[in-house]
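Hello again,

I reread your note about wanting to compare the complex against the isolated chains. To keep things tidy I'm splitting this into two emails, and this first one only covers the full assembly. Below are the input lines as submitted, including protein chains and any nucleic acid or small-molecule components. They are followed by the predicted structure of everything together. The single-chain runs will come separately.
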Amino acid sequence: MIGVGKIKQYSNVLDKPLSRGKQEFCLQVSLSAFAFLFSELVQYNQTQVDNIAELERRLEDAGYAVGARVLELLCHRDKGNRRETRLLGILSFVHSTVWKVLFGKVADSLEKGTEHEDEYMISEKELLVNRFISIPKDMGTFNCGAFVAGIVRGVLDGAGFPAVVTAHFVPMEGQQRPRTTILIKFAEEVLRREARFS
Amino acid sequence: MGSTACFIIVSRNDIPIYEAEVGSAIKKEEATHQHQFILHAALDIVQDLAWTTSAMFLKAVDRFNDLVVSVYVTAGHTRLMLLHDSRNEDGIRSFFQEVHELYIKILLNPLYLPGSRITSSHFDTKVRALARKYL
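Full-complex prediction:
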């Protein structure tokens, strides 16, 4: 067990340092461990609910808790204590910083909805959480990406941009697996505040 | 002769989740209530001010007699508010930054419900130690 003795033991979590320091490479989680945990999370929730909508809501709530914490931690650690006060600012924060830290890469695309002013979409060819999941036909439009939608909602809500966030499958031409789109629909007050500032 | 200082942490939903009198002066019973009242009254001003800047440290936002309210807003809109009579801005800024780090560590606990009271006695000890160091 070489090297174990070198890790300093802290008596209380409040004394542990927050920034990663030199231990960056030791603090990554294995994909298979996460996929296993996530599949257990979904299966556990499946036993607790009667319908698809409830299952999606539970996954979203689980993601919401993650999002609230990710927002605070990343603004402190990666953004040098700058808050986001504008809509485009928080969206690009989610699209690049949050995605990079959670999934190892920035999201594939960030688009503004064409039909409605308050809709934005973050698309991903294949969500990390969905990589090892296949949805049976009888579950209709259910998407485990609801967990990621919950994370995004947690980040936006925490920063003061309340929104309804959902995950959808979008079939693509010439590709076997459909693309996943996270649809973000902002509340009225966000648009009014944006209009006041610009 | 010491300094008066009252420190509270207010969550996003305007509920105080932590309170501490951290000044070194002798405390009077009525003074505590008054301090809390002044801090809560300053919340309105903070709300408007928070959206005008992307900085977290908002310096002095309000004054009452010779007491000044300084506020630090985190990314999740949790407000760290300090009522004080000193003019030591750098000390106050460092104090807020250190408490902010402690707050994030409390928040990262998956069993901590964001917006609920912080009951950890270790947190309380550390905040008071920081107050003695910086204020």
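For quick reference: Helices of chain B lie at 29-41, 43-50, 89-107, 121-134.

B.
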